[in-house]
What we know:
Blueprint: E1 2-8, E2 13-20, H1 22-36, H2 56-63, E3 66-71, H3 75-82, E4 87-92, H4 98-107, E5 110-114, H5 120-128, E6 139-142, H6 149-159
Parallel strand pairs: 3-4, 3-5, 5-6
Antiparallel strand pairs: 1-2
Amino acid sequence: MAIKARRDLATGTYALVRVLPVINQVDHHQQKLRATVKRKRQPGQSEQGGIKLTQPAQLAWLAQQKVLVVGNKRAQAFADELKPYVEVKLMDGYEDQPRAIFTAMQAADFVFILIDSVSHAITDYTKTQPSLAPTSRKVQIFRNPRRAAGVIRLSYLYATRND
């Protein structure tokens, strides 16, 4: 049962203003409704809700790729989704030394930058390097990515590759 009370600052007492017994019934109804709703997993989704790639040619191509994930927030979960398909190296955009990140960028086949959690030095460096320009295929920018966004991007990179 919900109540609304008013405090009298002079005396330090409370006065009952309103009683709302309906709130309790509505809350119980919502809990009952939530318990009966079950989400069905869509075909192609893994148990965690991510995307699962299954094409043999695509998997063979991806197995040869090295991906550097540069980020801070949510970067571990993002990288974990990529690990079944590619060799992943995860670097913290704030904790790791910029020189080490720059060297790793040059060595990777693809660089996935979680832009909301890296320093400006990282993005500035990519703008000065022709091979890492944000318009190149090598650098992929993610703003507030979902866990499965990296796998979706890998699938796109496979589909648009130049063999």
